[in-house]
Amino acid sequence: MNVLHVFAPVAISLKDYGQDSDWCIQQYNLNSQEIYKMHRGHQLPADNNDYLTFIECLWRKIGFLDVYGEINRKEIWRMYYSVAREVYNQGVSRKKADATMDKCKDVTGETPSLRAVNMGNCLKTVNSH
């Protein structure tokens, strides 16, 4: 198994985002156990209003959604590159981040929260192989 595949899903759900996640949960008075259970699941839910509120808040706070609610692919690429750099040299890290983003380049959604869920699910799928 590729080491990046182990690191990347953890990076999305945990790395440096714990405080931001907790802030969103508190801000919207959400059940943290339920939110974290869904967030760490195999597939992010697109049909749970509390989770949709959480993921949009979190992705906006960490810069994965821009001010218009569009996916900030450059910021997501930076996160993947940063995680890869913990293990690989610059060239390999760039290729791994590029490959990950290329596989999810066509992800969209009708709302900012659905774009976040759809992109999160694509990234989880890419990095589970």
Structure characterization notes:
With 129 residues, this protein is mostly helical. The protein is built from 7 helices and no strands. α1 packs across α5 and α1 runs antiparallel to α7. The longest helix is centred in the C-terminal third of the chain and has 15 residues. The N terminus is likely disordered.
Which helices and strands occur, and which strands form pairs?
Elements: H1 3-13, H2 18-27, H3 32-39, H4 49-61, H5 73-85, H6 90-103, H7 112-126
Question: Summed up, what is this model?
Answer:
With 129 residues, the protein is mainly alpha-helical. It has helices at residues 3-13, 18-27, 32-39, 49-61, 73-85, 90-103, 112-126. The protein has one domain: Recoverin, domain 1.
Main attributes of the structure:
single chain; 129 residues; mainly alpha; Recoverin, domain 1; 0% strand; PBP_GOBP_sf
Largest sheet descriptor: none
In CATH terms, what is the architecture? Orthogonal Bundle
Binned, the helix content reads: 55-70%
Helical segment count = 7
Mean pLDDT: 88
Q: What gap, in angstroms, lies between the N and C termini?
A: 8 Å
Order of helices and strands: HHHHHHH
GO molecular function, one term: odorant binding
Pfam family, one: PBP_GOBP
